[in-house]
């Protein structure tokens, strides 16, 4: 089952890592490997959400999502989108950006370095909003309860995450402007660009979230109508209307999944800029990682289990928060690529280990509960 489901992903991984070595040696190999792990980990919750919705669709629409949908996800969001970000930030054409990346690495690096403050501000704000909206939400399962419990209570304040994100952006832009003036003002004019880029990142998050919410509401409406139509069909013996509604509901499911996948892709793509500016390495790492999203989705649908490792989603969002902070810091200070990559991987690995420990505690508690006179209580968080 595992080899059949993940076979293509394993093959693409091998090809991607070999290509990385040929392109930039063992350092490139390490960066691509980190990007793969980061993308897979950050997309784990994406696969869980996809599987939960995909299992409601018929075989035709499942195939559409796992073929056309994956092409859009891999080539559109993971390969084309980073090029577009670089092109817009550096004020060059997408084709020119790719040409420079391959044929004039020094000039490309100069342009990307010059545009990095705006890329970091945009990405940092987008990722920070994802993290804040997650950490301020009340949830049944908590990982680091000493952090999550009080923050969930604070999250009841309306628009708190937006306010905090804007404060962080304002402080970053003002600090950047102050330091630029103190060092001769070479980058003083970019403080405004940082502010505008950060606001653009916030707006992008709100638009993507709004679209996801719109399609989710549409999906719920169609499912409710389908359920009512099924009841009517049972009473009247007609089934034509049910088929039409099922097809329409499946179409909305497909659109909803595509918007969700795009929104989940943003964190991986933008987080990648905290690790490397090289389009080629980014494309290799994120492309390989996207293949695992498809395989994980298929595996979860076929296995029928979605919550074996309940803290992985928490770890992925803490990694997003760490990447957001690191991106905002890199507006002014340089941080080694390996350090930024390993911080995210370490947080995700920690959450996986915590999930395994939780599962073991629950299994032990169930075993002890079977024994007479034992009333062991198991904690669900750290």
From TrEMBL:
Keywords: Coiled coil, Membrane, Transmembrane, Transmembrane helix
InterPro entries (alphabetical): DUF475 (IPR007427)
Pfam families referenced in this protein's UniProt entry, alphabetically: DUF475 (PF04332)
The keyword Coiled coil is assigned to this record: yes
Coiled-coil annotated spans: 212-239
Transmembrane region(s): 7-26, 32-53, 65-90, 118-136, 157-174, 194-215, 240-257, 269-294, 315-333, 339-356
Keyword Mitochondrion: no
Name of this protein: DUF475 domain-containing protein
Organism: Streptomyces solicathayae
Lineage: Bacteria, Bacillati, Actinomycetota, Actinomycetes, Kitasatosporales
């Amino acid at each position: 089952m595992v080899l059949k489901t993940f076979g293509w992903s394993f093959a693409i991984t091998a090809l991607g890592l070999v290509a990385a070595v040929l392109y930039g040696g063992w350092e490139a190999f390490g960066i691509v490997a980190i990007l793969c792990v980061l993308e897979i980990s950050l997309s784990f919750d994406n696969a869980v959400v996809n599987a939960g919705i995909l299992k409601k669709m018929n075989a035709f629409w499942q195939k559409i999502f796992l073929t056309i949908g994956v092409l859009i996800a891999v080539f559109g969001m993971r390969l084309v989108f980073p090029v577009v970000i670089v092109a817009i930030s550096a004020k060059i054409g997408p084709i020119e950006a790719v040409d420079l990346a391959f044929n004039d690495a020094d000039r490309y690096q100069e342009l990307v370095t010059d545009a990095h403050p705006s890329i970091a501000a945009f990405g940092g704000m987008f990722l920070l909003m994802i993290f804040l909206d997650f950490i301020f939400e009340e949830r049944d399962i908590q990982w680091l309860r000493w952090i999550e419990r009080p923050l969930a209570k604070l999250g009841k304040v309306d628009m708190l995450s937006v306010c905090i994100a804007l404060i962080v952006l304002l402080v970053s832009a003002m600090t950047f402007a102050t330091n630029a003036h103190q060092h001769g003002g070479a980058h003083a004019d970019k403080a405004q660009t940082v502010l505008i880029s950060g606001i653009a990142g916030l707006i992008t998050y709100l638009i993507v979230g709004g679209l996801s919410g719109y399609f989710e509401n549409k999906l719920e409406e169609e499912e409710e109508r389908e359920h009512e139509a099924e009841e009517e069909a049972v009473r009247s013996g007609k089934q034509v209307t049910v088929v039409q509604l099922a097809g329409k509901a499946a179409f909305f499911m497909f659109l909803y999944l595509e918007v969700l996948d795009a929104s989940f892709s943003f964190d991986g793509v933008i987080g990648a800029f905290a690790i490397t500016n090289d389009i080629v390495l980014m494309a290799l790492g994120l492309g390989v990682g996207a293949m695992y999203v498809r395989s994980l989705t298929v595996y979860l649908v076929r296995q029928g289990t979605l919550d074996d490792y309940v803290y992985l989603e928490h770890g992925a969002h803490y990694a997003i928060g760490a990447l957001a902070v690191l991106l905002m810091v890199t507006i002014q200070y340089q941080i080694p690529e390996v350090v930024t990559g390993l911080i995210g991987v370490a947080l995700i690995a920690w959450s996986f280990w915590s999930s395994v420990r939780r599962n073991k505690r629950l299994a032990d508690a169930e075993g002890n509960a079977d024994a007479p006179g034992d009333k062991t209580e198991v904690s669900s968080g750290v």
